[in-house]
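Notebook entry, structure prediction.
Reason for the run: the old model in the group folder had no record of what sequence produced it. Starting over properly, with the input documented here first.
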Amino acid sequence: MLKIALFLALFAPMIASAGDPTQERNEAVATVSTSVVTLQKMESQCVNAKTIAASTAKNAIDGWRMRNDVFLYTQSGYLNAYFKGYAKEYGEAAAQTQRKALNADINAAADGNIKVLLDKKNLKQACPSFFEALNKGKYDININYPYYPTLKEMVELLGLADRLPKN
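New structure, fully documented this time:
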């Protein structure tokens, strides 16, 4: 119970600071979520097609997660607080429906990202180049990332600005 109270104490002010979850924050968090799902799906497709070793994909994704951990922490916390608040306001069933709709949207966006990658190159070519770019930080959350100013503000509201990557 203490863990939940601490969690809500950290994230509730961020959500409430603009009166309610802003569209921009929601979109920023959805963009991070889409990135995570895109990585997971690319790993699955590439490893299953044997176009890249499982360890290579895992190492690239683990590196990305480490470099972007403050944003992933913020995204996870925001989503959990959002759905806890939604459940409190509208009920658990409505929150589950909302979560399923968000998951469907994020999966569709990730599928779209992968389609763009595969339209440029076939899977055999796309997989090694994707994970090489991932290793090099091409897909990191930085100043060029969509909604970066919003994500940065969210991190700062949590008092975690010292964990932001140096761009």
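Summary: Residues 2-163 form one domain.
The old model has been moved to the deprecated folder.
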